[in-house]
Specification:
Elements lengths: L1 E8 L6 E5 L4 H8 L4 E7 L12 E6 L2 E7 L4 E4 L7 E9 L2
Parallel strand pairs: 1-3, 2-4
Antiparallel strand pairs: 1-2, 3-7, 4-5, 5-7, 6-7
Amino acid sequence: MLNSSAVHQNTHSNMETIRISPDEEIIYKDFKEGNSVQVRVTVDPGDKDEFTKGKTVRVVHGDFEASGRIVSEPLIISHAMEGEDVTISLIVEKVE
């Protein structure tokens, strides 16, 4: 399992989006090949409950996109001070 830093983007659809940065191509490649990957996602404190175990998410890397499922309970990496985002760690696997 590989680690990645990711950015959450709410697209106002039923599925949350996790964007893997362009310099972490190996993470996306492993994900695309079916391996579970660990991502750190920065979210608004009110959105952290959207990332629960079993939830389907959209994983994006550049122009490529695939569906994934969160297979771990979210782990809070950094707590938010007032007005700041929260960083959570998730393990995500590809959904066929």
